[in-house]
Design goal:
The chain has 3 helices and 3 strands. The protein is an alpha+beta fold and 134 residues long. It has a single domain, classed as Collagenase (Catalytic Domain) (3-Layer(aba) Sandwich). A 3-stranded mixed beta sheet has the order 1-3-2, covered by helices on one side. Helix 1 packs across helix 2 and helix 2 packs across helix 3. The protein is globular and about 40 Å long. The two termini are 21 Å apart.
Length: 134
């Protein structure tokens, strides 16, 4: 459950620009999503390293460990209005939260629907946090 009033203040930077600020955001969202028992490694990566995606997560569920890679600003296009670092981070964290629902085969209708649902949830959570911030 996302309980904004009980969380530590959100990191002071408005945008994560380096791995240190990204790690602070990751810790905050990890706690907000109830993933405190997970060990998360979060870093920026180049577009080609994450299969031309905004983000990629590799998990070891039995160890509760995940490595999250997010697209660096170097590779994002100025006119790409869909790319938002925070939303992408939350999207990847929601994959961790929902890992027990199983891995769906890429490009199937079910996979596309799951991605769309996770994307909508991520945008909603990020927008709620931003509205709360003022």
């Amino acid at each position: 459950m996302l309980i904004l009033d009980k969380l530590k203040p959100f990191p002071k930077c408005d945008i994560a620009t380096d791995d240190k600020s990204l790690a602070a955001w990751c810790r905050w969202w990890r706690d907000a999503l109830g993933l405190q028992e997970w060990v998360l490694e979060c870093r920026f990566s180049r577009f080609h390293a994450i299969d031309n995606a905004y983000g990629r997560t590799s998990m070891k569920n039995s160890l509760k460990y995940a490595a999250i890679q997010l697209l660096t600003d170097l590779d994002s296009e100025d006119n790409d209005t869909n790319f938002d670092i925070e939303q992408t981070l939350v999207h990847e964290l929601l994959h961790i939260k929902l890992w027990h629902h199983g891995h769906l085969e890429q490009d199937t209708l079910e996979h596309v629907m799951q991605e769309q649902t996770i994307d909508t949830l991520a945008w909603s959570l990020v927008n709620l946090r931003r509205m709360k911030r003022g």
